Amino acid sequence: MPFLEVLGPGIRGRRIPLVREALVLGNAPTCDVCLEDPDLSPQHAAVRRVGETVLVEDLGSRLGTFLDGVAVTAPSELHAGDVVTLGDVRLRYGQAPAEPATAGPADPLAVLDSAETVTTMEPEVYAELVVHHREQLLGRAAVWLGRARRLFWVGAAVVALGGAAFAVGMLAFLGWPPALLDVVPRPPDMFGWALAGRVLSGHVAWAVGLAGLLTVLLALLVHVLARSRARRITRTIPPPPTSWHLTPHPDGP
């Protein structure tokens, strides 16, 4: 994940992960990254992500924005190690290495039991360490929600099939409408025609409908469990911060 590391003054070492497509930097409280430097403009500069490319752009600031000592007059691409200067604040651009894939626990939600203090982390540390894991868990819940929806419609179709088969046999037994008897013979029993082993077609239709109903109930259960997991993830691991308010420390470097 790309990030900006604050080099100073007073707030050295803070990392700002570029988790959004655009971040506005300045000293206005409404900025995505609010830097308490009176020399900065309210909206001083912007950092934008365009695909895999990260650009820095000056927003008409009073003192200007500099990239490795050169004034930024148009959107300029950032590379690892580049230093962006806004007034007295210097920001170094970097790329955090991708974490190797590791096998997760049997129950991916087990990690949430030890994540009660996650909201006390520094915002940039939280975003880097947690946001990908949170999205992975929510993605798994979404997969199960999709499976539940498909299972529901399969069950509903099976219920409809069984109901239609039973209805045809019942209507044929009642002889209504008369034109139906021109298509199928009249069954000797209200539960339809006798099949192999003297099993009535109506009983088979009921069994098919019951299987479909059980499938629908299973789909609803899976849906409830997946939705409950998604709510638990959202409640236990809240979304990452989208703005940072950086205040220099009086005794900072």
Describe the structure.
This protein has 253 residues and is an alpha+beta fold. The protein has two helices and twelve strands. A hairpin with a 2-residue loop joins strand 10 and strand 11 (89-95). Helix 1 runs antiparallel to helix 2. InterPro entries: Cell_Proc_Reg/RNA_Proc, FHA_dom, SMAD_FHA_dom_sf.
Characterize this entry briefly.
The chain is an alpha+beta fold.
Structure characteristics:
single chain, 253 residues, alpha+beta, Tumour Suppressor Smad4, 2 domains, 6-stranded mixed beta sheet, 2 helices, 35% helix, rod-shaped, FHA domain-containing protein, Cell_Proc_Reg/RNA_Proc, transmembrane helix, transmembrane, SMAD_FHA_dom_sf
> Total strand count, please?
12
Topology order in helix (H) and strand (E) letters: EEEEEEEEEEEHHE
Low-confidence stretches at least 5 residues in length (pLDDT < 50)?
A: 101-121
Return the average pLDDT rounded to an integer.
80
> How many structural domains?
2
Q: Largest sheet, if any? A: 6 strands, antiparallel
Helix count, DSSP H or I runs of 4 or more residues:
2
3D shape = rod-shaped
Cα radius of gyration in angstroms: 32 Å
Class of secondary structure makeup:
alpha+beta
Helix content estimate? 25-40%
Keywords: Membrane, Phosphoprotein, Transmembrane, Transmembrane helix
Protein name: FHA domain-containing protein
Domain FHA: 23-72
Transmembrane segments: 151-176, 204-226
How does the SSE layout of this entry go?
Blueprint: E1 2-8, E2 15-17, E3 22-26, E4 33-35, E5 45-50, E6 53-58, E7 65-67, E8 70-71, E9 76-77, E10 83-86, E11 89-95, H1 123-174, H2 201-236, E12 244-246
Parallel strand pairs: 3-4, 4-12
Antiparallel strand pairs: 1-2, 1-11, 3-5, 5-6, 6-9, 7-8, 7-10, 10-11
Keywords: Membrane, Phosphoprotein, Transmembrane, Transmembrane helix
Transmembrane segments: 151-176, 204-226
Domain FHA: 23-72
